[in-house]
Amino acid sequence: SSPQLPNIAEAILIDAPGGADDMYWGTRDVPTLSDTEVLIKTAAAGVNFIDTYQRSGVYKVDYPFTPGQEVSGHVAAVGAAVSEFSIGDYVATANGVNGYGQYAVAEADKVFAARSDLDPVTAAAFPLQGMTAHYLINSTFKVEPGMTVLSYAGAGGVGLVLTQLLKAKGATVITTASTPEKIELAKSAGADHVLGYDNVAQQVRELTNGKGVDVVYDGVGKDTFEESLNSLAVRGMLVLFGGASGQVPPLDPQRLNALGGLYLTRPMLAHYVRDRQELTWRANELMESIASGELKIHIGQRYNVQDAAQAHRDLEGRKTTGKLVLTFQS
Ligand code: NDP
Predict the structure, then answer these.
(1) Into which CATH architecture does domain 8-126+297-327 fall?
(2) Which atom of ligand 1 is nearest to the CA of 266?
């Protein structure tokens, strides 16, 4: 590592699984790098649901824990075996650690060069939710023109990107939102039908002449899973990609048979950025669409990193639209 680096730096910390209020601003050692890792001086960090799952103990992590997988910034040091990046490069990642701290770390394989025409907030706002929307519709289930898709939370971070990418593919998009403002925002992204959360399957049947949809992208989970199963066409696919309302209980496979030979999958981003080629394909396509203005990244809320607890309360409290970004003074 580089001689100019400090030994300790400031970060959001939590000492045990807990609530948003248990996070505090403190100091921790600047991480030492393995041979294959990159140290990033954080410019901005994206807030994601996974940060709340890790904070609360749904996913196991080591303590003291600093949340934050998604960051933009400049490379501050590289491991001995890293050849793709040099100190000073402008980069971003969706799969780092310590993002809510002044220094984040990521495997070089999960880091990509950020376009210089993207500001740091935008560069931290699109990687995780953007690449998720990208893999869901290009790789988990390949959406073709003319297909009809159901997704939820159409005013959310993933939801707004998903709708725009689906419309660009020529699909019909049915989504949900919980307030009049969110309904308007979801429509402005191009959604064809924006429903409330009641009787979704019945409304989907009406909108599809009884047929059901080709694919459901369900990131809400516990509260919507049954409606998702009941909204699908014969041989349709249910892509369960999150649990904003809680995790889904176990399922008897015979139900997939009874409902029409359905497919069920539960993917995550890490399975879809397995190598540098796959990562840069997704990241570069998204950055090109953002730079051209074709894809809008709606940054609904910005917070100073010290106020990360408020960001978590807002996200979990269903109060946000689009992306939440933490910014750093430097
Ligand atoms: P969002 O911005 O979509 O926020 C979540 C939204 O879900 C809320 O704003 C709310 O919208 C809706 N919602 C419905 N019910 C609830 C509830 N009970 N509590 C809270 N929110 C609820 O978040 P993200 O875009 O960051 O993530 C969406 C989902 O996608 C999450 O479950 C996340 O874990 C998952 N995800 C999965 C990835 C993967 O690779 N598997 C990667 C990235 C995200 P409304 O009020 O309109 O209903």
Answers:
(1) Alpha-Beta Complex (3.90)
(2) 41
Position in ligand 1 atom list of the atom nearest CA 135? 40
Q: What is the pLDDT of residue 3?
A: 57
Q: Which atom of ligand 1 is nearest to the CA of 324?
A: 2
Distance 323 CA to ligand 1 centre (A): 11
How far CA 280 is from CA of 211, 283, 287, 296, in Å, comes to 37, 5, 10, 19
Helical residues (DSSP H) of 263-320, grouped into ranges = 276-292, 308-316
Tell me if 8-126+297-327 shares its fold with 129-270. Answer: no
CB 35 within 8 A of CB 79: yes
pLDDT of 175-185, one tens digit each? 999 999 999 99
- Collapsed DSSP state (helix, strand, coil) of residue 85: coil
| Domain locations along the chain | 8-126+297-327, 129-270
CA dist 197 and 179 (Å) reads 11
Q: Is the pLDDT assigned to residue 330 strictly greater than 70? A: no
- How far is the centre of ligand 1, averaged over its atoms, from the C-alpha of 86 (Å)? 35
- Report which DSSP code applies to 102: S
What separation in Å is there between the alpha carbon of 209 and the centre of ligand 1? 28
Q: Provide the pairing of β-strand 111-113 with 70-78.
A: unpaired
**What residue's CA is closest to ligand 1, atom 18?**
245
Binding site membership of 245 for ligand 1 (Cβ less than 6 Å): yes
With a 6 Å cutoff on the Cβ, whether 128 touches ligand 1 is yes
Each residue's pLDDT tens digit, 234-247: 999 999 999 999 99
Q: What is the mean pLDDT of the chain?
A: 97
The mean pLDDT value for 137-142 works out to: 98
Q: Ligand 1: does its nearest atom lie under 6 Å from the Cβ of 271? A: no
CATH architecture, domain defined by 129-270: 3-Layer(aba) Sandwich (3.40)
pTM for the model stands at: 0.97
SS3 13: strand
Which amino acid, 94?
Answer: A
